[in-house]
From TrEMBL:
The chain crosses the membrane at residues 6-27, 34-53, 65-83, 95-113. Keywords: Membrane, Transmembrane, Transmembrane helix. The keyword Transmembrane applies. This is Integral membrane protein. It comes from Knoellia locipacati.
Amino acid sequence: MELLTHVFVVLHLLGLAAIVGSAVFVARGVPTPALVWGARAQILTGLLLVGLNEAGDDPVNHTKVAVKLLVALGVAACAEIAAGRERRGEGNPNLVHAAGGLAVLNTLVAVLWT
Ligand code: HEM
């Protein structure tokens, strides 16, 4: 169980790297597959981590998790809408910047909310 949790923490961190790497450092303003799939992965791996921690002995801060889920839904919404608009030739860099910024915000929530 502990190994599984560690595997999902690694996937969770790779999802973070995909979003912030793409939106903030590499393809600024352009919605890449890494951004969209990273945003989806954060919700999936985050919820699985909550389940694994609940199933084990690790306490879960439900308020913190609720805040992270809301912010992550915002990241995913921005990424999906930006990708949809890009496909229709109506690219909107602001949505990509918002997705990257919200992911950084969620990183701060994850690390600083103790
Ligand atoms: C853009 C979205 C997200 C980002 C950037 C993010 C970032 C992070 C980071 C950096 C950590 C490691 C913190 C540490 O170990 O000190 C973490 C851990 C965690 N995150 Fe997220 N997260 C996101 C979304 C979510 C969501 C949606 C959930 C659940 C609904 C979630 C649940 C968790 C849990 C339970 C842990 C603790 C894992 C453990 O140590 O067992 N995260 N997150």
